[in-house]
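Lab notes, practical 5.
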Amino acid sequence: MSPPPSAPVPPAENRPSLRARLSRFGLGCTTFGREIGREAAFAMMDHAVARGINHFDTAAIYGGGESEQMIGDWLASRRPAPGTVLVVTKIYPPFTPALIAATVEQSRRKLGVDRLDALLFHKWADEAAAPPVLAALDAEVRAGRVGALGASNFNAEQFGRVVGLQAEVGGARLQLLQNNQNYAVRHVDDEVRRRCAEVDAAIVTYSPLGAGFLTGKHRRGVEPGSRFSIAPAHQDIYFNDEAWRRLARLEAVAARTGLTSTQLALAWAARQPGVTSVLVGGRTTAQVDQAFAALAIDDPAIWNELAAES
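Output from the prediction step:
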């Protein structure tokens, strides 16, 4: 069944850049269908919008497709005004023109929309820079099935290479880069910031708490039922000397200031230079609220202390 018709949207050339349209926080929906069900997911989306969040982040593979389906059901139920809630989704390698077309159609159907607000490469693969793949993405934008393009988990060189190739042929370019960025693991460096600034691309960061690592709950081993247990690949990212050292520093500063490591980690992520938006999520609405509460923490002495050994 084809998606229901949606209200008209302004032509791309008459809309603000994607970077200008994103709220300070976005709702990460990776838990939908994997860690929480429909009722909890709806509560998260309702609460996020009530707090002023205007974009949801998902992917075709999240929850085996259930994340997109839950967002689509929420959109059909709540019927937000056009353009007030943007949905960012992703395609996973391998990247081929045929698979891009199929994934776009599948995501549109699950989300119940004519046009995906933004479509991202989920991770780097060499074919992301292949002319037929870039042409296929450009065709989706020109046909109105995709509003904007972006990438996730690209370094500065990879992002710049794709944007350069798109500029050479006059195709739709990447407007967003979404990378892991928190006190323990940093995938947004000065070169990433420079490359994105050159083309007015948004930088969106995810995992401000390191998927729970920065709460300290894994110090005595992986906590049962946690994301590190459900998605063990997180262990390879965080269980290393540098990340443990940074966690120890965060905990020491938290103890000295009377704050929690969770509060400090969220505040640190929210104040990083050049970052347009930070994705927050989890299993409960309280996890959204704690991100907003962290905005009140603004002590230069704390940032200097955290930076001293980061």
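Observations recorded by the TA: Strands lie at 25-28, 55-57, 86-91, 118-121, 149-152, 174-180, 202-206, 277-281. The two ends are 51 Å apart (CA to CA).
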